[in-house]
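Below is how a single chain appears once it has passed through the pipeline. First comes the sequence as given, then the structure the pipeline wrote out for it. We keep one example in the README because the format questions we get most often are answered faster by looking than by reading.
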Amino acid sequence: MKELFITFARYNREANQTIAALLKKLSPGDREKDRGSYYKSLSGLAAHIMGGEFYLLGMTKDAAAQNSGALKALEELGKLSVPQGPMDEAQWRRFEEDWAKADDAMVNFIAALREGDLQAPVAIEWYGGNPPSIPLYFMLSQILAHGTHHRGQISQILDELKIDNNYSGINVTFMSP
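Resulting structure:
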Protein backbone atom coordinates (compact mmCIF):
# COMPACT_ATOMS: atom_id res chain seq x y z
CA MET A 1 0.00 0.00 0.00
CA LYS A 2 2.87 2.38 0.81
CA GLU A 3 4.20 2.23 -2.77
CA LEU A 4 0.80 3.28 -4.08
CA PHE A 5 0.78 6.32 -1.78
CA ILE A 6 4.30 7.26 -2.87
CA THR A 7 3.19 7.04 -6.50
CA PHE A 8 0.19 9.28 -5.86
CA ALA A 9 2.28 11.76 -3.86
CA ARG A 10 4.80 11.97 -6.71
CA TYR A 11 1.96 12.43 -9.17
CA ASN A 12 0.49 15.23 -7.03
CA ARG A 13 3.91 16.91 -6.83
CA GLU A 14 4.26 16.81 -10.63
CA ALA A 15 0.68 18.00 -11.16
CA ASN A 16 1.12 20.88 -8.70
CA GLN A 17 4.36 21.94 -10.41
CA THR A 18 2.59 21.87 -13.77
CA ILE A 19 -0.27 24.01 -12.43
CA ALA A 20 2.19 26.44 -10.82
CA ALA A 21 4.11 26.78 -14.10
CA LEU A 22 0.89 27.50 -16.00
CA LEU A 23 -0.28 30.06 -13.45
CA LYS A 24 3.14 31.70 -13.36
CA LYS A 25 2.65 32.69 -17.01
CA LEU A 26 -0.42 34.73 -16.06
CA SER A 27 -0.21 38.28 -14.81
CA PRO A 28 -0.86 38.81 -11.10
CA GLY A 29 -4.16 40.43 -12.08
CA ASP A 30 -5.24 37.36 -14.03
CA ARG A 31 -4.19 35.02 -11.21
CA GLU A 32 -6.02 37.15 -8.62
CA LYS A 33 -9.23 37.81 -10.57
CA ASP A 34 -12.35 36.39 -8.93
CA ARG A 35 -13.28 33.43 -11.13
CA GLY A 36 -16.42 32.47 -9.23
CA SER A 37 -14.95 29.54 -7.31
CA TYR A 38 -15.30 29.23 -3.54
CA TYR A 39 -11.64 30.30 -3.22
CA LYS A 40 -12.24 33.08 -5.74
CA SER A 41 -9.02 33.31 -7.76
CA LEU A 42 -6.65 30.86 -9.39
CA SER A 43 -4.00 31.74 -6.83
CA GLY A 44 -6.59 31.31 -4.08
CA LEU A 45 -7.31 27.79 -5.30
CA ALA A 46 -3.59 26.99 -5.53
CA ALA A 47 -2.98 28.33 -2.02
CA HIS A 48 -5.90 26.26 -0.75
CA ILE A 49 -4.37 23.08 -2.20
CA MET A 50 -1.15 23.81 -0.33
CA GLY A 51 -3.00 24.89 2.82
CA GLY A 52 -5.02 21.68 2.84
CA GLU A 53 -1.82 19.68 2.59
CA PHE A 54 -0.37 21.62 5.54
CA TYR A 55 -3.43 21.26 7.72
CA LEU A 56 -4.12 17.60 7.06
CA LEU A 57 -0.47 16.53 7.19
CA GLY A 58 -0.15 18.39 10.47
CA MET A 59 -2.86 16.16 11.89
CA THR A 60 -0.71 13.07 11.21
CA LYS A 61 2.13 13.96 13.61
CA ASP A 62 0.79 11.89 16.48
CA ALA A 63 0.16 8.91 14.21
CA ALA A 64 3.81 9.02 13.08
CA ALA A 65 5.23 9.85 16.53
CA GLN A 66 7.28 6.64 16.67
CA ASN A 67 8.85 7.24 13.24
CA SER A 68 11.66 9.81 13.41
CA GLY A 69 12.12 9.87 9.62
CA ALA A 70 8.47 10.70 9.04
CA LEU A 71 8.52 13.40 11.71
CA LYS A 72 11.67 14.90 10.19
CA ALA A 73 9.90 15.16 6.83
CA LEU A 74 7.01 16.99 8.50
CA GLU A 75 9.43 19.43 10.18
CA GLU A 76 10.03 20.96 6.75
CA LEU A 77 6.48 22.27 6.78
CA GLY A 78 7.34 24.50 9.75
CA LYS A 79 9.75 26.44 7.53
CA LEU A 80 7.07 27.25 4.97
CA SER A 81 4.05 29.51 4.89
CA VAL A 82 0.70 29.43 3.15
CA PRO A 83 -0.19 32.83 1.71
CA GLN A 84 -3.37 34.56 2.78
CA GLY A 85 -5.04 36.80 0.24
CA PRO A 86 -3.84 38.20 -3.06
CA MET A 87 -0.20 37.69 -4.09
CA ASP A 88 2.03 40.05 -6.01
CA GLU A 89 4.80 38.67 -8.22
CA ALA A 90 7.35 38.31 -5.40
CA GLN A 91 4.82 36.59 -3.16
CA TRP A 92 3.88 34.26 -6.02
CA ARG A 93 7.54 33.23 -6.50
CA ARG A 94 7.85 32.48 -2.78
CA PHE A 95 4.59 30.56 -2.89
CA GLU A 96 5.82 28.43 -5.81
CA GLU A 97 9.01 27.57 -3.93
CA ASP A 98 7.14 26.74 -0.73
CA TRP A 99 4.52 24.69 -2.58
CA ALA A 100 7.26 22.57 -4.18
CA LYS A 101 8.90 22.08 -0.77
CA ALA A 102 5.55 21.11 0.79
CA ASP A 103 5.04 18.52 -1.93
CA ASP A 104 8.56 17.20 -1.34
CA ALA A 105 7.75 16.95 2.38
CA MET A 106 4.65 14.89 1.53
CA VAL A 107 6.66 12.49 -0.65
CA ASN A 108 9.41 12.23 1.98
CA PHE A 109 6.87 11.69 4.76
CA ILE A 110 5.25 8.80 2.94
CA ALA A 111 8.62 7.34 1.92
CA ALA A 112 9.69 7.31 5.59
CA LEU A 113 6.57 5.47 6.74
CA ARG A 114 6.66 1.79 7.50
CA GLU A 115 3.82 -0.32 6.18
CA GLY A 116 2.49 -0.76 9.73
CA ASP A 117 2.43 3.02 10.27
CA LEU A 118 -0.37 3.29 7.73
CA GLN A 119 -2.79 1.73 10.23
CA ALA A 120 -1.99 4.27 13.00
CA PRO A 121 -4.97 6.34 14.13
CA VAL A 122 -5.20 10.01 13.21
CA ALA A 123 -7.42 11.91 15.65
CA ILE A 124 -10.14 13.96 13.98
CA GLU A 125 -12.59 16.44 15.43
CA TRP A 126 -15.26 16.08 12.78
CA TYR A 127 -18.57 14.25 13.04
CA GLY A 128 -19.01 14.94 16.75
CA GLY A 129 -16.28 12.48 17.73
CA ASN A 130 -17.82 9.56 15.87
CA PRO A 131 -15.40 8.22 14.78
CA PRO A 132 -12.73 9.81 16.98
CA SER A 133 -9.98 8.80 14.56
CA ILE A 134 -9.30 7.45 11.10
CA PRO A 135 -6.39 5.30 9.90
CA LEU A 136 -3.39 7.19 8.54
CA TYR A 137 -3.84 5.50 5.15
CA PHE A 138 -7.31 7.04 4.87
CA MET A 139 -6.03 10.50 5.83
CA LEU A 140 -3.31 10.20 3.16
CA SER A 141 -5.91 9.25 0.56
CA GLN A 142 -7.93 12.34 1.49
CA ILE A 143 -4.91 14.66 1.27
CA LEU A 144 -4.05 13.33 -2.17
CA ALA A 145 -7.65 13.45 -3.42
CA HIS A 146 -8.05 17.02 -2.12
CA GLY A 147 -5.31 18.30 -4.44
CA THR A 148 -6.77 16.45 -7.42
CA HIS A 149 -10.21 17.93 -6.73
CA HIS A 150 -8.99 21.52 -6.66
CA ARG A 151 -6.61 21.10 -9.60
CA GLY A 152 -9.70 20.02 -11.53
CA GLN A 153 -11.30 23.35 -10.66
CA ILE A 154 -8.19 25.20 -11.82
CA SER A 155 -8.15 23.14 -15.01
CA GLN A 156 -11.76 24.05 -15.76
CA ILE A 157 -11.04 27.76 -15.30
CA LEU A 158 -7.97 27.47 -17.54
CA ASP A 159 -10.14 25.71 -20.14
CA GLU A 160 -12.59 28.62 -20.01
CA LEU A 161 -9.65 30.99 -20.53
CA LYS A 162 -8.56 28.86 -23.52
CA ILE A 163 -5.24 28.05 -21.83
CA ASP A 164 -4.05 24.57 -22.75
CA ASN A 165 -3.44 22.58 -19.59
CA ASN A 166 -3.62 18.92 -20.73
CA TYR A 167 -5.44 17.58 -17.71
CA SER A 168 -7.56 15.34 -19.91
CA GLY A 169 -4.67 12.93 -20.48
CA ILE A 170 -2.85 10.53 -18.22
CA ASN A 171 0.50 11.85 -17.05
CA VAL A 172 3.20 9.26 -16.44
CA THR A 173 6.29 11.43 -16.89
CA PHE A 174 6.76 11.65 -13.11
CA MET A 175 7.40 7.88 -13.08
CA SER A 176 10.57 8.16 -15.15
CA PRO A 177 13.77 7.63 -13.17
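The chain has one domain: 2-175.

See the next section for the split statistics.
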